Amino acid sequence: MYDMKVQFANIEFKNPVVAASGTFGFGEEYHEIYDVGVLGGISSKGLTLSKKAGNTGLRLWETPMGIINSIGLENPGVENFISNELPKMKRYRNRIIVNIGGSSEEEYISAVERFNDVDIDMIELNISCPNVKEGCMAFGIHEDSAGRLVKKVKQITKHPLIVKLSPNAENIVKVACACEDAGADGLSLINTIKAMAIDINNRKPVFENIYAGLSGPAIKPIALRMVHEVCKSVKIPVMGMGGIMNWQDAIEFIMAGAHLIQIGTVNFVNPEAGKEIISGIEAFMKTEGIKSLDEIRGII
Amino acid sequence: MGMILKNEELIKDIFMLEIEGKYEGKAGQFYMIKVDNTPYPLLSRPVSIFEITSNSIKFLYKVVGEGTKILSEKKKGDSISIRGPYGNGFPPVKGKVALVGGGMGAAPLYETAKQLMPDPEVNVVDLYLGFSHEIILEDSWRKVCSSFFYDIGGIITDYVDVSKYDVILSCGPDIMMKKLSELGKKAGVPVYVSIESHMACGIGACLACSCQTKYGNKKVCKDGPVFLGEDIYDV
Fold it and tell me: Which residue in B114, B123, B126 sits closest to B94, CA to CA?
């Protein structure tokens, strides 16, 4: 018998595939296409304490094997999420990860605290969104600010806390270790890579914020290297992500040390990717006689 | 996956793509077309339905970038992946209806006219199209409407007496749809506009196509692409 179940920070996931924040809404749109309950979990669209309208101007630019986005955390806010979206997410009966962003320590803390009496599985602290002017990635660039924030949030939250790291950090391994020391129960990486594009006819940057976040298969080799480095340096479990397009990519991240993997951009390319990646991993396990993913995790 | 029956250049850079199969769709809805079966380019392109026939679906598109260029090189017999239909489409209408299109905005109005003509609730379907250089498919447009008006290189809204109609459905450049929305507001005639946006998923998850409306942000792909003009434009 083979088993796809994964234990992550004392929580059992039915399989290692989680939909990444910002690419899956709250699951509803994809549930019209397939039963998203087959996924191990869903990380919610990044939430802030109050509703956010997101960025103005062009928000999306396609590049060779990648996309650059400048959405800017458009979201309904924590209260609207709890009343309107969370009850729908619960119907899928998989793990609910609530992704929280913020522009100040106080905002993060208030948002996270609001979930203390709400039935969710995990908080994913977003210190890595490159698309908002204040906060978020600013906390994730340096280990000191990351560690300080994680320590404060960990003190007040009742839920397992994972921290989503930025590849734009000065040293992602140091940030990872600082989060672990501050009490994080797990990590997820990588968020998008800060990038830009120029409209040569108008002689202007494509995005109003000039810089935005690159994702997709173009970043996979970098993401894989970072996941590998971090997994070698921390004891807490890691959700690996960055350009995963198929089950083979997912297996690479697991071999690099990830407990779970998150899929993002691929959902836009193929809305049924989640289901297909789960079947692919399952078939690989059968063919290779792998009984548990523990057998191949971190073998590199 | 469907098979391409035709991918023909009508005039420079404007193509008619026909894919075999039984497809559904309301007037004004769109499909996401994956221009190639390789991973590049990653994203599908949103293209509105031009016509649905008993055994095929047709799309009228313009080559504007690398994705549509790759699409234009596809040949009869090639397979292609499309998903949809997505979006709200034009709302049900009654009485005298004007359809106003500018440039490639003409594309969704063919199926729209075709669906409205036999509708017993609809008395008149007048079609107004503005082209920048050259008319395409002249005979086809005439067959699906009560009266057909077109203009080349001018301003199509100059030809439309908005007050004669119960409702206007439009698709085209912002400047054209804004003008119609202004005229409609003055005359008390609802003007619906179908707007265009970059989008990644087409189903409402990525928020790349979020647009500002009187009622806050809306998703072009899911809440739209058709909106009441006065909710979008400051008129």
Answer: B123
CATH topology of domain B95-232: Rossmann fold (3.40.50)
- The CA distance from B178 to B182, in Å, is 6
Residue A122, H or E segment: strand A122-126
Which ranges in chain B are annotated with CATH 3.40.50.80?
95-232
- Fold of the domain spanning B2-86: Elongation Factor Tu (Ef-tu); domain 3 (2.40.30)
Spatial contact of B104 and B61, defined as CB atoms under 8 Å apart: yes
Q: Do A74 and B210 touch (CB under 8 A)?
A: yes
Per-residue pLDDT of chain A (300 residues; tens, 9 = 90+): 689 999 999 999 999 999 999 999 999 999 999 999 999 999 999 999 999 999 999 999 999 999 999 999 999 999 999 999 999 999 999 999 999 999 999 999 999 999 999 999 999 999 988 888 777 788 999 999 999 999 999 999 999 999 999 999 999 999 999 999 999 999 999 999 999 999 999 999 999 999 999 999 999 999 999 999 999 999 999 999 999 999 999 999 999 999 999 999 999 999 999 999 999 999 999 999 999 999 999 999
Beta-carbon contacts of residue B30 (< 8 Å; ≥ 6 apart):
B46, B47, B48, B49, B84, B85, B86, B87, B108, B202, B225
Domain assignment present for A209: no
Instruction: Say if the Cβ atoms of A71 and B201 lie within 8 Å.
Output: no
- Catalytic residue status for A177: no
| Nearest C-alpha in A relative to B36 | A269
Q: Tokens in use for A180?
A: 């672990």
**Where are the CATH 2.40.30.10 domain residues in chain B?**
2-86
- What is the pTM assigned to this prediction? 0.95
CB-based burial label for B28 (10 Å; 0-12, 13-18, 19+): buried
Cα A143 to Cα A151: distance, rounded to the nearest angstrom: 12
**Domain coverage including residue A164:** 6-54+74-194+218-295
Could you list the beta-strand ranges (E) of B12-94: 14-20, 30-34, 45-48, 51-52, 56-62, 79-86
B1 touches chain A (CB under 8 A): no
Helix (H) or strand (E) holding B125: strand B122-131
Helices and strands in chain B, H and E counts: 5, 15
Sole residue written with tokens 């339905």: B49
A chain contacts of residue B196, beta-carbon cutoff 8 Å: none
B8: tokens are 């023909």
Count of other CB atoms within 10 angstroms of residue B146: 16
Contact B161, B184 (CB under 8 A): no
